[in-house]
Amino acid sequence: MRKREQALNARLDHLNPLVFDTHELGRRPGALRKVTRSVPAPKDFGIAGVIGAPEGAPVALDLRLESVMEGVLVTGTARASAEGECVRCLEPLSQEVAADFQEMFSYHESDSRGRVRAEPADDAEGEDEDRLYVEDGLFDLEPVLRDAVVLALPMQPVCRETCAGLCSTCGIRLDENPDHHHDAVDIRWAALQGLAETVKDGEKDNMGGAEAGVDEKQEK
């Protein structure tokens, strides 16, 4: 089944907090409606494994719904508290995120009797794949909201800009131990140092053998 057919057969749940009703707005171009709503964050709302709003956390929405010839133009802002992990020190962090968005939810084309027209030609299908539609007077804001929030979140979140991170040698947190350091060893001399220690051990062995020989002579 093609995406166009799937869209025509879709039935949105009006009880879903991210589904909005446009019947009150009507189809008269220029009609305007403002909506303020707090909705629970859906599952996996953010950048997976990096940062995002916990499932069920409140997301504040301020929306402006405007009726135009093609459909309903939705402009809005979403605000939520996101949680994640600092990429430098690996400590938990929380930060407020505000995501702005604007999206057109189109009406399905219909003939003079209000019947939905037949499916468009194949060459026009690609243009419709990314379009969002008003279904029976309802539209689902979730896909638009997800995209907007992902773009607003940092790909590499930090607990603060001055976070010094962890010691690359032992993993200790540097902000709590500002004087922490390790004596640097020049890798160019590391092999020679190992050789020198080997030579010293060999000299000790030789000396031990020599002393044993002297003791044997003295006993004779």
TrEMBL record:
Region Disordered, residue ranges: 201-220
Domain of life: Bacteria
Organism for this UniProt entry: Streptomyces corynorhini
Classification via InterPro entries: YceD
Name recorded for this polypeptide: DUF177 domain-containing protein
